[in-house]
Amino acid sequence: MVVHVNAATSVDGKLASRRREQLAISGPADFARVERVRAANDAVMVGVGTVLADDPSLTVDDAELVAEREERGAPPQPTRVVADSTARTPPDARVLDGSAPTVVLVASSAPAERVAAIEDAGATVVSAGAERVDLPAAVDELAARGLVDVMVEGGGELIFSLFEASLVDELSVYVGSTLIGGRDAPTLADGEGFVADYPDLDLVGVERIDDGVLLRYDC
Ligand SMILES: NC(=O)C1=CN([C@@H]2O[C@H](COP(=O)(O)OP(=O)(O)OC[C@H]3O[C@@H](n4cnc5c(N)ncnc54)[C@H](O)[C@@H]3O)[C@@H](O)[C@H]2O)C=CC1
Ligand SMILES: Nc1nc(O)c(N)c(N[C@@H]2O[C@H](COP(=O)(O)O)[C@@H](O)[C@H]2O)n1
């Protein structure tokens, strides 16, 4: 099982502005790299905050990359995974459009009618945890379903929780040459934040892409 977090930040570590709207920090070459990372993984995971803010598709759109997946016996698309404790994923969200399999991770306390709406939209709902998705249990459940290489695209709340649970194996951060600012703008790792036992990251790659820098870490 390998969990690879990939995200793009401004120089000041923000994932988006305080308006939490999708912002293109990556340039074309980095977005193409992200697409290749998606294609190399069994699953692409986000938190529901990202679904609500960005309405991402999380699919591989490059036909050559889809063909490469099929040649190695993988399904054409990675499975989309949404961490969504209270089942807030809107039934008309793009992650539920049927263009790729989707798993929505919920807590057992999620309202039954919202869970049913997500299932009716075609997703598989997996319950892990009582009030909040229990990420170690959820990751084990994904592995049991053959989803062992998981790319995580954000956002900051989910990324922090994965680090807190020591579940991150690799971190790639594309730092775009821009400044966003704002005390309420989401950062790479939000949540409660660490006050001790800060994760030790091992810098294994530095590469200029477009107008920014890709930093790669083993975790
Ligand atoms: N620049 C980039 O690379 C990216 C930027 N973004 C931006 O990030 C923002 C969204 O990030 P966030 O608001 O932090 O939302 P998020 O995408 O991290 O989702 C957080 C939600 O996930 C659910 N969740 C379920 N189990 C959880 C757990 N164990 N720990 C934490 N969350 C759990 C909760 O409902 C929580 O509210 C948006 O502004 C979006 O545009 C998102 C992805 C990538
Ligand atoms: N790598 C990267 N660079 C940026 O500048 C970004 N804004 C993001 N955001 C992530 O990409 C998702 C968009 O997915 P689709 O193209 O709609 O499939 C978005 O939701 C974030 O997860 N990433």
From TrEMBL:
What EC number(s) are associated with this protein in UniProt?
1.1.1.302
Tell me the Gene Ontology biological-process terms attached to this UniProt entry: riboflavin biosynthetic process
Catalytic activity field: 2,5-diamino-6-(1-D-ribitylamino)pyrimidin-4(3H)-one 5'-phosphate + NADP(+) = 2,5-diamino-6-(1-D-ribosylamino)pyrimidin-4(3H)-one 5'-phosphate + NADPH + H(+); 2,5-diamino-6-(1-D-ribitylamino)pyrimidin-4(3H)-one 5'-phosphate + NAD(+) = 2,5-diamino-6-(1-D-ribosylamino)pyrimidin-4(3H)-one 5'-phosphate + NADH + H(+)
Which residue intervals define the domain Bacterial bifunctional deaminase-reductase C-terminal in the entry?
Answer: 3-215
Q: Name one Pfam family in it.
A: RibD_C
Which key words tag this protein in UniProt?
Answer: NADP, Oxidoreductase, Riboflavin biosynthesis
Keyword DNA-binding belongs to the record: no
Could you give a GO molecular-function term held by this entry?
A: 5-amino-6-(5-phosphoribosylamino)uracil reductase activity
User: InterPro entries under this entry?
Assistant: DHFR-like_dom_sf, Rib_reduct_arc, RibD_C, RibDG_C, Riboflavin_Biosynth_HTPR
Which residues lie within the region annotated Disordered? 69-89
Enzyme kind, highest EC tier: oxidoreductase
Q: Which pathway does the database say it acts in?
A: Cofactor biosynthesis; riboflavin biosynthesis
Q: Which NCBIfam families match?
A: rib_reduct_arch, ribD_Cterm
Its subunit composition reads: Homodimer.
Q: Which family does it belong to?
A: Belongs to the HTP reductase family.
The protein here is known as: 2,5-diamino-6-(ribosylamino)-4(3H)-pyrimidinone 5'-phosphate reductase
* Native organism: Halarchaeum rubridurum
Q: What is the lineage of its organism?
A: Archaea, Methanobacteriati, Methanobacteriota, Stenosarchaea group, Halobacteria
